[in-house]
Protein: Histidine kinase-like protein
Amino acid sequence: MTAYDDDMPAELRGLTTRMDPVPAHLIALAKESLAWRDTDAALAQLVRQIDLAGVRGEDLPDLFTFTAGELTIEMEVAVTGLTAALTGQLVPPQPASIRVDHADGPTWVEADPLGRFSVACVTRGHLRLHCHPAQGGPVQTSWTLI
Structure:
């Protein structure tokens, strides 16, 4: 092996960072995503998604249902331009603190004693809910694209 062969990997490693660097906002989002994870939270899987847009007109909401153990999170997403409004219900009904993780960062909302919650002006893109119910441990939904 020649000295030229030893230098080649170092030159190639630097090529991608010089020619096509990772955008700064993606690096920031990657770092923030690590801060959002909670290893103690149960993962609520998406069990049903209904897109009503093609049923009886335009701009109808999408419906999502997530479950984790005994807790079900039902959510309606109404999209308007680049933002969306979320309206949801916890089953069984109970108060909870809910963090909505989305492109603009986390937004906190409280579910009332009937388990109802709503969030306006959520930036479209990937989002997830991190629910701290009054009964049981924390529950986190999978990432969902709206």
